[in-house]
Amino acid sequence: MNNRKSPIYSQSFLGALDELEKIIEYKFRDRDYLCNALTHSSFANECKAQKKQVSSNERLEFLGDSVLSIVVSGYIFNSLTYEQEGDLTKIRAFAVCEDALYQFASGISLGDYLALGKGEEKTDGRHRKSILADATEAIIGAIYLDSGLSLDAVKGLVRKIALPRIEEILDTIKRGGSKNYKGALQQLVQNSKGDILEYVYVSESGPDHNKSFTMRVMLNSNEIGVGVGKSKQEAEQAAAKEALKLFGENV
Questions:
Q1: Given 32, 137, 168, 242, which residue is catalytic?
Q2: pLDDT tens column, 104-157
């Protein structure tokens, strides 16, 4: 790759790598992998036009997607011992979907560390959902290669991405919930490319020992369901259930 030694990257970009390594809790032996994972195709194309050689993160994204899937598959297989194959597939899709990757990336301000082309900079590419999700998968792929193809090396990062959603599903099951409405809604929405699904906090009421939360689910900034529950997660499930009814699903 020869990315790290190249003068292509700015000093500010290279200088921020230490900070990012601390955030993801992985120290690269070969920083070229990390540079490559953070390089968007728009930056690589601009460099190519200037006769400079640099690779985009698209190949690492492909690898990271597969590594993410296998690590999460192993985790839910061992955690959900009574679920059937179809249910496990839906749970995995919910745990590793673009929204899960985007939420993680946003939480660590990953966009600040990316190498983007000027066009993407102007159109707020550092906050674009697809770019952040793809870069997260690329980082997983980079760690996997840098560690000598070790799945154990990526487990820490993968758990940060997927575990909150898996625990949400496990909590639903423990409370006797017969269906993961958020997962079902996410799967339904994923059939339409470009749609953005998000859950928005509305309000809470009641004493500390008996709180009630209200959450709203939005599709492309339009409200499609509102739910109330004893926790934000429960309220989100209720909102997703209402949204599924709107789509004509039998829930």
A1: 137
A2: 999 999 999 999 999 999 999 999 999 999 999 999 999 999 999 999 999 999
* Annotated catalytic residue 65: yes
Catalytic residue among 32, 61, 65, 120: 65
DSSP string, 109-178: TGGGG-B--HHHHHTTGGG-HHHHHHHHHHHHHHHHHHTTS-HHHHHHHHHHHHHHHHHHHHHHHHTT--
- Which of 224, 227, 247, 223 minimizes the C-alpha distance to 236? 227
> Is 137 a known active-site residue?
yes
CA atoms of 68 and 26, how far apart (whole Å): 16
Report pLDDT digits (tens) over 37-95.
Answer: 999 999 999 999 988 889 999 999 999 999 999 999 999 999 887 778 888 888 898 88
